[in-house]
Amino acid sequence: MAGFSFSCKTQVHFGAGVHRKLLDLLPEGARFVVLVTGVSGTASAPVRALLAEAGLNVTFVVCAGEPTLQAINDARGIDHCDCIVVCGGGSAIDTGKALRVALQKEAALTDDDFGLTHDAAGCVPLIVLPTTAGTGAEVTSNAVLGALSSAAKVSFRGPALQPDVALVDPDLMKTAPKSVVLYAGLDAVVQNIEAYTSAFSTPLTRALAGPAIGSTLAALRDVIETGSSDAWSGLACGSLSSGLALANGGLGAAHGLASVLGGAYPAPHGALCGRLLMPVMRATLQSPFCTEAIRSDIAFCQDAIAQVFAPTEPTDPCSGFERWVDAQDLPRLSNWGVSIDQIEGVAQTAVTASSSLKNSVKLEINELAQVLRDAL
Fold first, then answer.
1. DSSP letter at 154?
2. Nearest to 316 by CA among 303, 332, 300
């Protein structure tokens, strides 16, 4: 067995109602709190109520869309901050992470900061409460932000991006619109699959991601179709598993392509990942460099999918899943404005994306272009 490392410096609390622990987990003597939320504010209402009842001085930062360096720089003029609390989806969490770096730096962030490893020394504490089940951002040490000089989305990385505490409460996730639930849930499913099959996977990441593939997909189906509390807990747990696994074992080409597409088109990240998953899986299987071990890993994933959605085509174990996402109106790439003549350029950029390089088989430009055509 090859050597490996595993890290999760976030203290995680999981369960329905666990958001009520927030006040006990704030830094001792904290008086000034920066609260980052999504634009709706509905999901964060219980957390806002807790902070108000405690009489804390709260500065609000609203994440109105996909986070960018410019938005972080616009928000960083904060006089006093004892702790950053984030109650929102992946974009809000990434905003809080980057804001923490900006406050530590005491200067505007620039594109040069993308190339640095940001240390946690001198950072204010960061507590996150995710309101969507999908990104796993509550346990990762990166944040995806729009650059200043281009439309690209790039990752900030380093210990400063790792939350100190995560309160993963399924009760905070139940007000999300169906499309948000679907897209975020598909992100979690894809993350578990790609972390399991990644060329950088380890025994521990596979132990986390493997069982979560089927359970997360089943939970997503049940949340969409019944909204049961057990399903919400399963989906939140699957998202958490995916975050831990991807942070320690990497992802794959679906995420590599999604990172490029997300910077150029107004498409939610999870929707892109969900649409790209099957074409990437097929391209990997068709690669001349796909080994028997890789085929076995993909077969494991296909079987987990087939156990949740019975195949509708006898030769395609994932046909039931593809029919289900189509029935849920998951957009195709063309719905977001991607055209056939843009495919080659996207593929050329995505071939060197960090996640693409961790795919179980390295897919070349022509193979990534075919993936895009299949998802168009």
1. E
2. 303
